[in-house]
Amino acid sequence: MGGRWIIQQNTQRLTRVLATFVGVSVPAALVNSGLKYMQKRIKLSFQRRLTHVLHEHYTNHRAYYAASTLGGLTHADQRITEDVEKFAHTVSELYSYTFKPLLDVVLFTRALSRVMGYQRQAALYGYYLVISQVLRATSPPLALMTAQETALGGAFRAAHQRLVANAEEVAVSWRGRCTEQMILNQHLYRLLHHSRLSAFQQFVQQSLDGFFPPHPLVSPRPSRPARPPHPRHPTSPPPPQDYISAMRLLGSTSRAIGDLVLVYKRVTGLAGHTSRVSELLERIRGLASADEDSTVTRLYLRWAGRDSSAGVLEPLPEPQRLEGDTVKFRRVYLSSPDGNLLVRELSFEVVPGRSVLIMGPNGCGKSSLFRVAAGLWPLQAGEVTLPPKGELFYLSQRPYLVSGTLRDQLLYPEPPQAVWDTASGRSRARVEPWMKSLQLGEEELEERLCECLEAVELDYLLIRGRGWNQVQPWNETLSGGEKQRLAMARLLFHRPRYAILDECTSAVSADGEQKLYSECVRAGITMLSIGHRPALREHHSVIVEFDGSGNFEQRTLRSSDKEGLLAAGQQ
């Protein structure tokens, strides 16, 4: 319309057309931006709800341990982060790529009906119906291709993460670089091979899409406009502007229908992401089932490859986990993952004030006892009695340092302060009953924390950094001994009745180790310790020695732990 007024040099009409165009463009721009905004909101809503459900199951009944350590789920980190994000993004795109073309078809069809009626548009719709069936029949398995490509990408990323996690061990091996390069290249070549195959299949599919024109009834603008009979006045030709308007509407309708036909590609891509996410949900729900012991046992035996009780002639006692006032093992059998029997008929009790030290050669089952007691490995035979969870603390050889401040390191497993400040009321209500820091005032809490740091000789961390609120990459900043000392400070702060310690001071010097165990005895913590150094006997009342052939010997050293401090002159 504006071109005619330019040719006629009608400034008034041209200004009116431009004003109308500007008036329509502003709401059109807002609508388009609003559609993109709503698409983003839909994606975030899907991602938030789905990830929240996954987190609820993933952190329940130690499903994360069964997934990562026992092999219950491969690449769980990638599936929960990337796969869920891709699924939510594809779902949100499907809304805009479906409803907008569908609305365009309805509006343009109604507008075209005034010019050419509904019967002549039926040929267009029939053409696309046939073409859609042909394209679906010749389409490659896009859902399977998407799922496989995502899995290969996750394996490639996991190979790099494994190299980063073991960088020091690989670096000290002179020929390790070549081996690791071959491993990474193998994952890369697998991904590239699949990508090339996928690209070829997409090339074939795009060729078919191009062979069947997406807008068959839209022809180039003719130099001489044709004059088809007007539906309202069959004997008189329509005006040229009606013909041009009809061609534009017809082109818009064809494009909208073509977009709807090609939606099948996005649906099949969504099917690939859906299969990954649905498998993730199913596997995590299985790992987080209420029967935690049966889940751990099933995965452990699958990992072991055969029944661990093989070779034992006498009938084994039924496995039982009980709750009581002491730590007690009665007729417990320990086996390694490859099925070898480590200890048979293990029986002893840890009573308050009388700590027990487990000693023996490497591979005799000391750490296996720790994992069975913690519920990480299944109890295959015998009876294990443990106090309530709030009265028992576990420390392994590799301490876990949470992301957060120095204060957060000592308060863990309480949530870090930054997480606590943004937590919902429901989340707070779940952890408030057992948070000891909430039971102390601010000054009393800081005084207690300082005492714990001084007891493990780490008070210099407050001076070296910026007080309790300093945030550092603790795993890189602290040495192995400092990490273990910090974990012992955490133990001293919480002061449980019992603590099970699996070589938790192996990186600390002998003198430092003596001081740490002395502080535990002074704090009234009864320990079930696993260690190698003979000097640890001074801080324990009973010693249980494994001989590595399935037998053990139990000896009493003294009547109470404090007698050892008195004998060493440390009371």
Provide the gyration radius in Å.
35 Å
Number of domains: 2
CATH superfamily of the largest domain: ABC transporter type 1, transmembrane domain
In the CATH hierarchy, what is the class of the largest domain?
Mainly Alpha
Runs in which pLDDT lies below 50 for 5 or more consecutive residues are 217-230, 302-313
Gross morphology: elongated
Largest sheet strand order:
6-7-8-4-9-10
What is the number of strand segments? Answer: 10
Oligomer: single chain
**CATH T-level fold name of the largest domain:** ABC transporter transmembrane region fold
Contiguous helical run count: 21
Name of the CATH architecture of the largest domain: Up-down Bundle
Biggest sheet record: 6 strands, mixed
Helix amount, in percent? 55-70%
Structural class label: alpha/beta
Tell me the distance between the termini.
Answer: 100 Å
User: Which strand-content bin applies to the residues?
Assistant: 5-15%
Region (Disordered): 214-242
InterPro entries: AAA+_ATPase, ABC1_TM_dom, ABC_transporter-like_ATP-bd, ABC_transporter-like_CS, ABC_transporter_sub-D, P-loop_NTPase
Family: Belongs to the ABC transporter superfamily. ABCD family. Peroxisomal fatty acyl CoA transporter (TC 3.A.1.203) subfamily.
Biased composition (Pro residues): 214-226
Topology:
Blueprint: H1 2-7, H2 11-58, H3 63-68, H4 76-116, H5 119-138, H6 142-165, H7 167-171, H8 176-211, H9 240-261, H10 263-287, H11 292-304, E1 320-323, E2 327-335, E3 341-350, E4 356-359, H12 366-374, E5 383-386, E6 392-395, H13 406-411, H14 417-422, H15 425-431, H16 442-455, H17 460-464, H18 474-477, H19 480-494, E7 498-502, H20 510-522, E8 526-530, E9 542-546, E10 552-556, H21 561-568
Parallel strand pairs: 1-5, 4-8, 4-9, 6-7, 7-8
Antiparallel strand pairs: 2-3, 2-5, 9-10
